[in-house]
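Entry 0007
Protein: Mechanosensing system component YbdG
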Amino acid sequence: MQQLLALLKQYGIEPDHTTSLVVIFGIIFLTAIIIHFILHSIVLRTFEKRAQASSHLWLQIITQNKLFHRLAFTLQGVIVNVQALLWLQKGSDAAAITTTCAQLWVMLYALMSFFSLLDVMQGLAHRFAFSSQFPLKGLLQGVKLLSAIVIGIMMISLLIGKSPAILISGLGAMAAVLMLVFKDPILGLVAGIQLSANSMLKMGDWLEMPKYGADGAVIDIGLTTVKVQNWDNTITTIPTYALVSDAFKNWSGMSASGGRRIKRCINIDSTSIRFLSAEEQKKLSQARLLQPYIAERQQEINSWNCEHSTSDSVLNQRRMTNVGTFRVYLTEYLRQHPKIRKDMTLMVRQMAPGAEGLPVEIYAFTNTVVWLEYESIQADIFDHIFAVVDEFGLRIHQAPTGNDVLAIAEGFKVQ
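Output (structure tokens):
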């Protein structure tokens, strides 16, 4: 200010203190307007045009996140602060207010610039395959939260004129309150690190968590929430820490294997199970899939019967059953099926019989993990099973329907 007063006196002007402040603030304001115009209307606009026309992806990502815009605002605050120190009298109220406002401005836009830098890093990381292995968004949000707390403490200390160390030392008494307020972010940050370290979940995984009604693909892993797009296109939001504290099913292993499991039972009516007659064996031996089995099995049974059987009683002989032959047929059918994996587990097994008959379970893997294709393959297989079961003299167990009850009632009426 003294330099400005001396300069004005050289020109024969005797300004008072108020006039000097008005002139100084006018100079500071005019300089800020000029610098703002140069940076935003000329430099940044030219840079954005070249970035949009450039083939470099990183330039486009930087312009989309307004990194240089916020850096320009930060630079403007630094220039205003320097001007206040040069033109205003040190220790005056005007200098203190101006420098404080300028420093707050610089801190705020420096923080926002740092946020933009993290957004740029996230945008660039998504272009690489390795980023899908880490919950990068949640980790960066945690860094943003910590940096916002630090800058907030520095701004408050600047306003009250105290050292930041004093405020930080006082936070110990507020630790319990802070833990309660920031419980979800803290738990989410720890959970994100655990998910990444243990390779439990990544973007694009098929997640199933019935507790939260989630069954679909992971589309976002944030600091406090994980978003799952269900197969009906609804969005389910799950707390990040719930993925560590609760159980969930990740189907990514199935997708990576290239085969999806078929595991379904058909219930055979137990009263339809019996030995095959000679005529039925002859008829079934005409089936290409059963010819080797029936020939080999019949030879084995005949040899055993000739050696051990002493009478014509069924209890003293070995014979083929319709359900056993049916099980062998299904096994061979699946082995010959072009869309069933032969290098993965394939079997047809009997389960424990119950009130609903004898369960015969199909256990195999398709050669695709695409949902629509998988359902089509499974439906075709069981369509065929239901159609051929009668050829073996078997019946599918089914609870009586209204028509069954009506037929029984009509039978009693006729009698």
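Curator remark: Residues 280-319 form one domain. The beta strands are 206-209, 214-221, 225-230, 235-239, 249-250, 261-268, 347-350, 358-365.
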